[in-house]
Prior knowledge:
This protein is mostly helical. It has helices at residues 2-22, 33-56, 62-70, 76-101, 109-112, 129-150, 160-179, 185-195, 197-201, 203-222.
Amino acid sequence: MIAEAIGTFTLVLFGCGAAVLAGAGTVGVEAVGQLGIAFAFGLAIVAMAYGIGPISGCHVNPAVSFGAFISGRMSAGEMVQYWVAQFIGATVAAGVLLLIASGKADYTLADNGLGANGWGPGYLGEYTLMAAFVFEVVATFIFLVVILGSTQKAAPAQFAGLAIGLTLVLIHIVGIQVTGVSVNPARSFGPAVIVGGSALSQLWLFLIAPLIGAALAGVLFKQKLLEADED
């Protein structure tokens, strides 16, 4: 649980931190842009995969734990414990990010936010609710296929962290303009509960859609449709 809390904390602090502290709207620095934000999320996963992977498997995402549960790789009790740690880690990270960002004179929570997810008028590409929901389900499904596939017994374990991190980079490159990219209920929860407003009212989608995508992937592995033949 400590490993999962630290891992989720790192993902939210550096992923959302790239958007808030070095994103396109930042004054006085060279903006990293969408590509830089995508790599911040992905590299955080790569780092934590090798740092805490041997301890907890580096889920750092309630959807990943749910997919592992559906596929039969962990118990319901273990999943709930992971969820608690992940949501705590994400919320603490959002608080720390606010504390850091507030050290800049022109930062305001209302104007600059904390990298919260969303959709619709006024949010990035202004995509519709349907587009946001479909993207989050499909992207999480693909993410879980890579995670469950690269961590199965027949896969080369030493490359799993790299494959998973690069997949998250790819998902962000495609989807930042759609939803800011969640594929992770904890990542969405932390910033939303602090920012409030529309981020909090739209949080439901980023809790439900990733779990649906994760469940679909989990079922495929549970039914052995994507399990490699170890022989």
